[in-house]
Design a protein that fits this description.
By secondary structure, the protein is α/β, with parallel strands linked by helices. It has helices at 13-26, 42-45, 50-54, 63-70, 90-94, 119-134, 154-157, 169-184, 200-207, 223-230, 235-238, 240-256; strands at residues 2-6, 31-35, 96-98, 101-105, 138-142, 160-165, 190-197, 215-220. It has an 8-stranded mixed beta sheet with strand order 3-4-2-5-1-6-7-8, sandwiched between helices. Bound molecules: adenosine-5'-diphosphate and magnesium ion. Keywords: ATP-binding, Nucleotide-binding.
């Protein structure tokens, strides 16, 4: 099962990605969590100890490694490099494991303008498609709002795109954008999780903006989740109530995917 989590900034993508990853791991699945957001913080939400967290170097920042694999010399913008770098050993060598979740932190790509293809970009893109196409494990990707960097082919192979929204117009707008973009690059199904819900009206507001069968469920606003963020704990460990809500969402996802 390959899942990509997306949505507007601050809606709860990382919170949800971490809880879903922990849940699959707890159920006995082998899980790879991919931090594909340049503003990487999935490790903290997964409950990684500070020493491990501090030791994480995103793949894109391993300059020598990137240039090794792509045969590009450092800073060689616009020059020749390999478009098919070797990536199959990366998950094994660079994942950090904790609580049964293996984490891969991708990092930022300085794209220097749209349409740019640089060695880091090629390597990350290839790594993403490798994870999605070749990996037998559960892969949960914590993404930026956009999904275009996955590309056609890879996007088609993701089992579910989940857009996290809040009960407000702005995050729903991002959901609509993702859906349109998803259509363009061959994504089969886009699901929605409503987060930071306070009451039934919030639920109804979100549902009224979705098509039938798109909603996976709701996560209620919970002070425990905020507190876990303040104390560098995993929300999975601190809030039973939220965990139960994520469990129901996971079950709905499995059901809709016939798993
Ligand atoms: N259900 C919730 N209840 C309360 N606070 C939440 C909830 N979900 C997320 N948050 C808080 O909202 C903030 C943003 O969440 P985060 O997961 O980092 O969002 P994103 O990854 O989409 O930017 C964090 O401080 C987080 O603790
Ligand atoms: Mg995030």
């Amino acid at each position: 099962m390959k899942i990509a989590i997306t949505g507007k900034g601050g809606v709860g993508k990382t919170t949800f990605s971490s809880m879903l990853s922990r849940m699959f791991a707890n159920d006995g699945y082998r899980v790879v969590a991919v931090d594909a957001d340049p503003d990487a913080n999935l490790a903290l939400a997964l409950g990684f100890p500070k020493e491990v967290y501090d030791s994480i170097v995103p793949i894109s920042e391993m300059k020598n490694f990137v240039s090794d694999r792509t045969a590009a010399s450092i800073g060689s913008f616009g020059k020749m490099f390999k478009l098919n770098p070797k990536v199959d050993d990366i998950p094994e060598n660079f994942c950090k494991e904790y609580n049964g979740v293996r984490l891969l932190t991708l990092g930022t790509v300085d794209s220097g303008g749209s349409g740019c293809v640089c060695p880091e970009h090629v390597l990350l893109k290839r790594l993403c498609s490798h994870l999605i196409l070749q990996n037998k494990d559960v892969v949960v990707m914590d993404m930026e709002a956009g999904i275009e960097h996955l590309g056609r082919g890879t996007a088609e192979s993701v089992d579910a795109f989940i857009v996290v929204v809040e009960p407000g117009e702005r995050s729903l707008q991002t959901y609509r954008k993702v859906k349109k973009l998803g259509n363009d690059i061959g994504v089969k199904k886009v699901f929605v999780v409503g987060n930071k819900i306070r009451n039934k009206e919030d639920e109804e507001f979100i549902i009224s903006n979705l098509e039938d069968g798109e909603s996976l469920g709701f996560i209620y606003y919970n002070q425990d989740v905020i507190n876990s963020d303040r104390s560098n704990q995993s929300p999975y460990d601190t809030s039973e109530e939220t965990r139960n809500q994520v469990k129901a969402i996971q079950q709905q996802l499995m059901k809709l995917q016939n798993l």
